[in-house]
Design goal:
heterodimer; A: alpha+beta; Uridine Diphospho-n-acetylenolpyruvylglucosamine Reductase, domain 2; Uridine Diphospho-n-acetylenolpyruvylglucosamine Reductase, domain 3; Alpha-Beta Plaits; 7-stranded antiparallel sheet; globular; B: alpha+beta; 4-stranded antiparallel sheet; 14 strands; 29% helix; 24% strand; elongated
């Protein structure tokens, strides 16, 4: 054991430190296939005090580290190549749940769906609902600013976090809020430090606990399934619904290859197999008037060319329709051993055109693309099932993805709507942002982590940081990572 | 004070030159939109004003996307007029009047009586362009409604009162105006206060539900027990909401102008702030405006 491993073992107990290479293989990837980098060491604190002590020990040793929740991330962001992995899954206590104030305070390792289950007896739920919600953790959601289908109406993680206790990479424990909190100390304003922290992908520090908003369960929910003979028409229906000002709770699109994968699997939801695309649409809120909203959605779908619109009759039919959507990624396991779940956002009015372009790019590279995504937000998920052991196919998948990203940037969109940059999207950052903007991102990081020890090599390419260049010039023998 | 020099750049590049020059000469610039929020309780002792008046106008508006980009000096009135014809609005409706600029609204993160239901500046800004205290032109965030690419400079700058950068352009999320939008003054007997509080938090999700007379500095505010309620939704939804309100108190129709009056009356209260200057906040200011060129002293950071 190295001296660092021994030191960490003294804090958390030797049983919660892994230093053996064969055991560390478990942590060499997250949910992004094709990218495997094993850590040198893994440590799993079990209490708040242990977490803070671990981060301080890492700071004292000058050791870089990567915080990890459940490892369900899709951008390679939780890989800790040759450095220390700081696993947070043991910190899974719900510390407080206030049904009157509608908030909960949780440790970072609490699973998203577990929090919703705990809130359910009070008629409340935690609104952000990523497809991985039965496994992913709130700490990871904060790091990635996670979304989900119902973020269309209810907003992403950023909109639901109130306050967080964070241990900075240097060991300092701070409390962050959105800058508009009543802190009870007479101060009424401040920078939105929590807003800056959320979505920082583990580069700014580690959540010790976080207070999130809980959302009242809607009085009534109506779920519709509209099916279309052309993907374009489904995209057009999406634009019409958004422009008409009906704000569905969720508006999801699945295309034919996705429908086929789902219907052939154990998650079969009863989607029409011969449809080119289906829209899964949910409206919710006060019972009064909700049927009028549903009728308006149906009318707009038919006006855009829907062949049929089906309304779920009861909770079990609704659950079945949603299971098909949420397990679509798993269902694609039938098609090929690996799956790239991509993530990009385009203006909603350009969805139809972009989907045509994506199909053409797929055909050109001979890869099969399954689209299943948050159409209401313009948040695309073009997924490619493939065999990562086939070098030729992997290269074609990579080429197709690069073209799709470039096309989304050209359309005025962005390279990730909810999965993060991590390692996977690093090459696109200089395509999307100007040198000044990337340098400003480095400055923001430096506020929280001036030594760049938290999740080094991720999010912003290090060559974009002018300060890093200056430091390198002054001190040639640097061992800095590849990112900011 | 009117003797101050005044610069009004027409582009971010011009603003960057002005700011770099000021930093080099150790001069302080006071950032000005419409000029209604100038001191926030801490006077800025500036050498010159830096105005956004030439950075005005809507630069891009796609009604079908419900997104809009505008120069920082664009007035709220102009945004309202441009979006109204498409049945949409920029729902910030902040404290103060509509002569205020969108740049200042975002810079101060000023929300208003509808924030709980329609969103705060920190939620409705998709991205922005600003020039920081070192002259960097920063294009933060984007124009699409969901975006996690890179570190979130938009959140850092929004509500920073110009102390991290001069906002030159903003990208906003719009919302569709409700099909029916109506306002009521509700006289609530003491026995029904819990009921109206439950209504405010309940499934009808009113656009606003404000008790008047306790913290309302409005000179003509009604006495205690009067509430201002604004409802938005479809016909059937509002019929049910109205019925629920009638079970709580007596309803009188309220002109929509009453909300504008409330926004103006409350503005002075909302702008009194005591900034939190913890070490992290000081480091943030230091990284983006090390020479304290922008609004030095505005947030009381100088002893």
């Amino acid at each position: 054991m190295t001296s660092l491993a021994a030191e960490l073992g003294r804090i958390v107990g030797d049983a919660h430190v892994i230093a053996r290479a064969t055991q560390l293989l478990v942590y060499r990837s997250d949910a992004l296939p094709g990218l495997q980098r094993a850590p040198a060491l893994a440590v799993f604190p079990g209490t708040r005090d242990e977490l803070v002590a671990v981060v301080r020990a890492l700071a004292a040793a000058g050791a870089p580290f990567v915080a990890r929740g459940a490892g369900t991330g899709l951008s390679g962001g939780a890989l800790a190549e040759g450095i220390t992995l700081l696993g947070l899954h043991r910190l899974k206590r719900i510390l407080a749940l206030d049904p009157i104030g509608r908030t909960a305070t949780v440790e970072p390792g609490v699973v998203n769906a577990t929090l919703t289950r705990a809130a359910a007896p009070h008629g409340l739920h935690y609104a952000p609902d990523p497809s991985s919600q039965t496994a992913c953790t709130i700490g990871g959601n904060i790091a990635e600013n996670a979304g989900g289908p119902h973020c269309l109406k209810y907003g992403v993680t950023l909109d639901h976090a109130v306050r967080a206790t964070v241990v900075l990479p240097g060991g300092e424990v701070v409390t962050l809020d959105r800058g508009d909190a009543d802190r009870g100390d007479g101060s009424g304003g401040g920078y939105d430090l929590l807003g800056a922290f959320i979505g920082s992908e583990g580069c700014f520090g580690v959540v010790v606990d976080v207070t999130v908003r809980l959302t009242p369960d809607p009085e009534r929910v109506i779920t519709l399934l509209a099916d279309f003979m052309r993907v374009r028409d489904a995209a057009d229906a999406t634009s019409r619904i958004i422009a008409a000002g009906v704000l569905p709770a969720a508006l999801e699109l699945m295309d034919q290859p996705t429908i086929e994968a789902v219907e052939s699997s154990v998650y079969a939801a009863g989607y029409p197999r011969d449809a080119a695309a289906v829209l899964l649409i949910e409206v919710d809120g006060a019972a009064a008037g909700l049927e009028d909203d549903a009728r308006e959605v149906e009318r707009l779908c038919r006006a855009a060319g829907a062949r049929g619109v089906r309304v779920a009759h009861d909770a079990s039919e609704r659950a079945r329709l949603w299971q098909g959507r949420k397990k679509a990624f798993g269902a694609m396991g039938r098609v090929a051993p690996h799956l790239v779940v991509q993530d990009a956002v385009v203006p909603r009015s350009q969805l139809a055109e972009l989907l045509d372009d994506i199909a053409a790019i797929g055909a050109q590279h001979g890869v099969r693309i399954c689209n299943v995504f948050h159409a209401g937000d313009g948040n695309l998920h073009p997924n490619i099932p493939y065999d990562a052991h086939d070098a030729g196919e992997s290269a074609r998948v990579h080429a197709a993805m690069t073209e799709i990203m470039t096309r989304c940037i050209e359309a005025g969109g962005t390279i990730t709507g909810e999965h993060g940059v991590g390692l996977d999207k690093l090459p696109y950052m200089e395509q999307l942002f100007t040198p000044d903007t990337l340098d400003a991102m480095c400055s923001l990081r430096a506020v929280f982590d001036p030594d760049r020890r938290a999740n080094p090599g991720k999010v912003v390419p290090v060559r974009a940081c002018r300060e890093w260049h200056a430091a390198v010039a002054a001190r040639p023998a640097t061992h800095d990572g590849g990112g900011a | 004070m009117s003797a101050l020099l005044r610069d009004a750049p027409a582009t971010a590049a011009q603003a960057a030159t002005i700011i770099r020059d000021a930093a080099a000469a150790d001069r302080v610039l006071r950032l000005v939109g419409a000029g209604t929020w100038l001191d926030a309780g801490h006077p800025v002792r500036a050498h010159a004003e830096l105005s956004t008046e030439q950075l005005a106008g809507i630069t891009s508006y796609r009604p079908e996307d419900l997104t809009l980009s505008a120069g920082a000096g664009t007035t709220l009135a102009e945004l309202d007029a441009a979006t109204r014809v498409h049945g949409q609005w920029c729902p910030l409706l902040p404290w103060g009047d509509d002569r205020g600029t969108i740049g200042a609204t975002i810079a101060t993160a000023t929300s208003g009586p509808f924030a709980e239901r329609l969103g705060r500046p920190r939620e409705l800004v998709l991205g922005l362009e600003c020039v920081d205290g070192t002259g960097r032109i920063v294009a933060a965030g984007g124009r699409v409604v969901k975006n996690v690419a890179g570190f979130d400079l938009t959140r850092a700058v929004t509500g920073s009162w110009g102390t991290l950068g001069l906002i030159t352009q903003v990208h906003l999320r719009l919302r569709a105006r409700p099909v029916v939008d109506e306002s009521w003054a509700v006289d609530v007997p003491a026995s029904a206060v819990a009921a109206i509080e439950a209504f405010a938090r309940g499934p009808f999700a009113p656009l606003a539900c404000v008790m008047m007379g306790t913290d309302g500095p409005h000179p003509e505010a009604p006495e205690d027990g009067h509430w201002m309620v604004r409802l938005g939704g479809n016909e059937a939804n509002l019929a049910a909401a109205r019925a629920a309100l009638r079970a709580i108190g007596t309803l009188r129709p309220l002109a929509s102008e009453a909300w504008d009056e409330l926004r103006i009356a409350r503005a002075p209260v909302e702008r009194a702030l005591r900034w939190r200057w913890d070490p992290l906040s000081r480091r943030l200011r230091e990284r983006f405006d090390p020479a304290q060129v922008l609004n030095r002293g505005l947030l009381g950071e100088v002893a």
